[in-house]
Specification:
mainly alpha; 4 helices; 46% helix; 99 residues
């Protein structure tokens, strides 16, 4: 599964500026995913790499953002998406516009 620009944006947005109503949920999902990633042989901390960030050596994604992308899944299927792009968009609309 390829990651889209909107998913990259979603992960970084949730990492840097998580929606107030979703902060706790995003944090819980990210912590569960990071625990799985930390046990994976493909996490960058288990390899010599020139990149300073903790990332997946399979997909190349920075894990601080990828694990917070609710519509993303691990390319090795070690964890799945918990929301579709549309579901997250609807949740954010409710928070911002009360709809």
């Amino acid at each position: 599964m390829k990651i889209s620009f909107s998913q990259i944006y979603e992960g970084w947005k949730n990492n840097l500026f998580p929606a107030k109503e979703m902060r706790k949920y995003i944090k819980e999902v990210s912590e569960e995913r990071m625990a799985i990633c930390e046990d994976c042989a493909l996490i960058s901390t288990k390899h010599k790499t020139i990149r300073p960030d903790v990332h997946c050596t399979d997909c190349g994604c920075t894990l601080a953002a990828k694990t917070k992308c609710l519509s993303c899944q691990c390319p090795l299927e070690k964890w799945k998406a918990v929301m579709s792009d549309r579901e997250e968009e609807e949740a954010l609309k409710k928070e911002v516009y009360g709809k």
